[in-house]
Amino acid sequence: MSVDATTVRRIAHLARIAVSDAEVPHLQGELNAMLAFVEQLSEVNIDGVEPMTSVTPMEMKKRADVVNDGEIADAIVRNAPDTVNDFFLVPKVVE
Amino acid sequence: MTDLTSLTIAEAREGLASKSFTARELTDAHLVAIEAARVLNAYVLETPDRAREMAKAADEKIAKGEGGPLAGIPLGIKDLFATRDIRTTACSKILGNFIPPYESTVTSQLWRDGAVLLGKLNNDEFAMGSSNETSCFGPVTNPWRREGSNTTLVPGGSSGGSASAVAASLCMGATATDTGGSIRQPAAFTATVGIKPTYGRCSRWGIVAFASSLDQAGPIARTTRDAAILMRSMAGHDPKDTTSVDIAVPDYEAAIGKSVKGMKIGIPREYRLDGMPAEIEKLWSEGAQWLKAAGAELVEVSLPHTKYALPAYYIVAPAEASSNLARYDGVRYGLREPGKNVIEMYENTRADGFGDEVRRRVLIGTYVLSAGYYDAYYLRAQKVRTLIKKDFEDCFAKGVSAILTPATPSAAFGIGEKGGADPVEMYLNDIFTVTVNMAGLPGIAVPAGKDMQGLPLGLQLIGRPFDEETLFSLGEVIQQAAGRFTAPKWW
User: Fold this and answer.
1) CATH of B8-261, one of 3.90.1300.10, 3.40.50.920, 3.40.50.720, 3.50.50.60
2) B220 Cβ contact partners less than 8 Å away, ≥ 6 residues apart
3) Catalytic residue among B78, B120, B196, B450
4) Is B158 an active-site residue?
5) Contact A18/B344, CB-based, under 8 Å?
6) What confidence tens digit (pLDDT) does each residue in B236-246 have?
7) Cross-chain Cβ contact B335/A81 below 8 Å
8) ipTM above 0.90, yes or no
9) B489 labelled catalytic
10) What is the pTM of this model?
């Protein structure tokens, strides 16, 4: 399989990465090189093989469902580009 | 007095205990070395004030007889590990001036045991790369050069800063991470020892995530013993990482020097690639002979799905990366580029903040997870991964203790030499290491010789799950036979 220019733009939008028209042909070439490389997986017989979901066979430990941290709003917003009163600020979402 | 930076961790530990020098002197010697080696670009942040404070605290503890196992040992930390109140960037512009309000579990255990932080080490952006050329701070220089040449070589990646700093004696050891070979390949390129432990051995909490089912932290050091000393402090169960395994951490150092007599060592025929350089082939058989001379038994084994590990990796790792890196949206931390609405703000932030390699992997990951392609790519790759793991299980079930392979298909190459036209050219660097991540196994790279141009080459040993001790024992045999290799100082 290979991707065309329209698909490159669609993926970039899904990934929320702005891509200029000038960059599309170059990206298309790189993505197609990667897709051509992984193409060889189609020759592997995977009939009846379970997909790997966990590399180590282990039961996932769960912690008790209790509050164990909090009251650290300052620490949480400390690195944000724009905040007001412990809230993150974003451009207007609802008109 | 001998140059304190040339000591191993084991030697420094002794010197500190016998009061031959203080932790402060040891740290100061390293700070001087770091300043003189800025041309290597190994450190992206030096923390001399913090280092002196920590060294002073270590001296006080040692004086009271309360020094921990790493008391006063100065280390470098890959910039992928969150360090409280100290800038952590994953060497990406998108994290900007991120100052974590928390400490990664692995580094917190190093400080608990008395280690000293010298600074943060360069790496490929988000650990995506095999040459340390994708860092937003620029490439790292390998202290090794070809004989009679001034060409600047890469130290490998993604833990290039860690490998370069350890090889150039700019720290006594370093933390590193390995998703497809990022500890072992740079270790092989710099004549250092690097171990990627079993998945789950070290907590991933507080380490910037790349591909969560593959990422593991481990040490890079100058000897197998030093790597074992660091491993013991780094490993262990952490309730904050549900994939970290709750089993006791052994004294890895005790495995150094242990007999390997009677161990079965697998030599996998699929690792003998067409067109493999003769010197790699030679190194490999030499390594096998050293293990044999130490009493191990060599057996040919087959890992039939080896060739599919790298393509499967380039589906699984980007898929996980595209999910993990969705968090960089210009809202909660890091870079923000304005846009006329929130979507445009995301798109501009991520376009400006991610470098080319990261962007490429996020895009391919998004594609293989997108509607209509998931089964053909991601699901198929996860099934192939099951087969890769089974290859190893079958091999270990026959009584094989460990598998010996070359660490890399070549020695270090020049900056800008690879991957310019086709990204896959760079990816092939990890052909011998990536299988280990796909199967979640431990793997160690040990320096074993030099190529015809005088550049270091390494061998890799792959072990059974949670049997890092066997790797340390076997690695020590190789190190004893091959000797240690030190880059001639030119910087």
Assistant:
1) 3.90.1300.10
2) B159, B162, B163, B166, B173, B174, B175, B176, B183, B186, B187, B192, B193, B194, B227
3) B78
4) yes
5) yes
6) 999 999 999 99
7) yes
8) yes
9) no
10) 0.97
